């Protein structure tokens, strides 16, 4: 976004120059107008309705991720153990190093986002996969969180005190379509989410 402020001399005052005829169509004025990001630039979530191919891909990744959470590799175990030691050291005043930060980040992925690791190892487009996963999990909630909130459905959106933005309208429409489309897969998806996104997996 560009902004243009014109300063005029005399008595130390700043004034806005009066618009000249046709100024609203000048190149400078056009550049000064704010450019709103498109909905696609404001969220990673896929904004088109999910397809069977999308769901098949999500389930393939999440099934592999759930199996790996239940049977972690030596590297996964090392990341979790390393994170525990770093957290214990932090409690006694140890300042984490850059390597410590990387270990903690890896442990967080192992604990609650193993699907991202699996997707990377499958050489999938990470952003595309995350967009699908976010679309799925926006309407099929983590059962642990749903139980804590006392409901089994996706949380109702907070009433807005403004007119819906283009992104909000788009998300509302696509989420409604996705919720119906995912109904046959809902039970399996929630079982997988309960394993892969379980906060109890986080190192302590």
In short:
This protein is mostly helical. It has helices at residues 27-32, 39-42, 52-70, 74-91, 98-112, 114-121, 126-139, 143-149, 166-181, 186-196.
Please explain how this structure is put together.
With about 200 residues, the protein is mostly helical. It has one domain (about 45-200). The protein has ten helices and no strands. The longest helix is centred in the N-terminal third of the chain and has 19 residues, at about 50-70. The chain is globular, with a radius of gyration of 24 Å. The chain starts with about 25 loop residues before the first helix and ends in an 8-residue tail after the last helix.
Topology:
Layout: H1 27-32, H2 39-42, H3 52-70, H4 74-91, H5 98-112, H6 114-121, H7 126-139, H8 143-149, H9 166-181, H10 186-196
Helix pairs in contact: 3-6, 3-7, 3-10, 4-5, 5-6, 7-9
One letter per element, helices H and strands E, the order comes to HHHHHHHHHH
Q: Compute the CA-based radius of gyration.
A: 24 Å
DSSP strand count: 0
Spans of at least 5 consecutive residues with low confidence: 1-21, 26-30
Domain module count: 1
Kindly state the mean pLDDT as a whole number?
Answer: 81
Structure annotation, total helices? 10
Helix vs. strand class: mainly alpha
C-alpha termini separation: 43 Å
Beta-strand proportion: under 5%
Largest sheet: none
Looking at the structure, what is the overall shape?
globular
Helix amount, in percent? 55-70%
């Amino acid at each position: 976004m560009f902004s243009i402020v014109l300063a005029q001399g005399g008595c130390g005052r700043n004034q806005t120059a009066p618009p000249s005829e046709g100024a609203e169509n000048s190149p400078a004025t056009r550049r000064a107008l704010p450019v709103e990001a498109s909905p696609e630039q404001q969220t990673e979530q896929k904004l088109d309705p999910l397809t069977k191919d999308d769901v098949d891909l999500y389930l393939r990744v999440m099934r592999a991720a759930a199996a790996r959470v239940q049977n972690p590799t030596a590297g996964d175990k090392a990341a979790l153990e390393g994170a525990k030691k770093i957290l214990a050291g932090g409690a006694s005043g140890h300042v984490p190093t850059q390597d410590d930060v990387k270990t903690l980040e890896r442990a967080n992925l192992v604990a609650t986002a193993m699907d991202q690791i699996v997707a990377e190892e499958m050489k999938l487009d990470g952003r595309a996969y995350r967009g699908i996963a976010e679309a799925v999990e926006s309407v099929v909630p983590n059962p642990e969180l749903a139980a804590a909130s006392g409901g089994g459905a996706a949380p109702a959106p907070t009433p807005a005190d403004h007119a819906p933005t283009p992104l909000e309208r788009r998300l509302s429409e696509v989420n409604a379509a996705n919720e119906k489309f995912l109904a046959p897969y809902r039970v399996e998806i929630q079982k997988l989410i309960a394993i892969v996104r379980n906060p109890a997996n986080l190192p302590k």
